[in-house]
């Protein structure tokens, strides 16, 4: 049961048990089920990829979308305390690789006796005062999917200190199979639908499509929930051995960008500086009237994105849900994510910084 991959991950994240899964969405869904949660309310940060609310929904629970703070891009603890009485579990996400306020969130969950799941899908290698992410919670979930810190295009893992949770999770996973080619296609078609919807409507306009989006997302169940393909294990192990180097090079690229863009801060750009110990998934800045700039950069062939619009916009009608998401909306409307992975060579970094600098200089006159 406990092979090399499991041992490696337990070592990196200071947890005692590990079980690889087909992807992190499956991991989150199984984790909630293994905790015995059904028909419950699960708090998540609202500035997050749609897979997180999707996992909550697929587990038979309801997401509670909490606003975030620009300090660390995670759940705002004041929001959690405010809504706390209404939630039965929390998924704390180290979103964008930024270490969230995990200590206070963990203390709060403990005080109420509710479970905490830590999502480090894009934060592997991050730490808080030297303690690795994934070690602060009852259950932690990591991803090795496309675009993650360790990216082999498949897989994830659940880590836990509780053997009971591990056993429950394994028992529930038995009903799932390895993802078929047809299922992979269905998941990628859904991803395209999500991107197209976003590209056509950007922020609040997305909300008009929430009913259709949610229906289609729920129909993805049999395609997205899957077990780990053991054949991919060695590749992940090999990459994990190099994690420190990967983290280091991402930090160096982010530092370079920060240096090049510092002077833009006086002309309307806000650089989001994550807390010490974070791993930059992408380098994030906030810019007013972002969409025209984003479109022009995409036309020029730059790798650039603007994740994430507030997640609730995709799943719930605001007029009904009444979700308060002032900060996550603020981020969603202004954020630009610059690449800092191995694709971001010197040329890209210099060129994208030039583009932003020129645009802001023009925009400010
Ligand atoms: C990508 C992502 C997931 C889902 O990971 P998959 O392995 O693709 O299912 C979950 N949470 C966060 C924060 C992510 O970025």
TrEMBL record:
Zinc recorded as keyword: no
Family, similarity comment: Belongs to the DegT/DnrJ/EryC1 family.
Residues at the active site: 148 (proton acceptor)
PTM annotation (N6-(pyridoxal phosphate)lysine): residues: 148
GO biological process: polysaccharide biosynthetic process
Lineage: Bacteria, Pseudomonadati, Pseudomonadota, Betaproteobacteria, Nitrosomonadales
Alphabetized GO MF terms: pyridoxal phosphate binding; transaminase activity
Keywords: Pyridoxal phosphate
Record-linked Gene3D superfamilies: Aspartate Aminotransferase, domain 1, Type I PLP-dependent aspartate aminotransferase-like (Major domain)
Protein name: DegT/DnrJ/EryC1/StrS aminotransferase
Keyword field contains Transit peptide: no
Superkingdom: Bacteria
InterPro entries listed in its UniProt record: DegT/StrS_aminotransferase (IPR000653), PyrdxlP-dep_Trfase (IPR015424), PyrdxlP-dep_Trfase_major (IPR015421), PyrdxlP-dep_Trfase_small (IPR015422)
Biological source species: Sulfuritalea hydrogenivorans sk43H
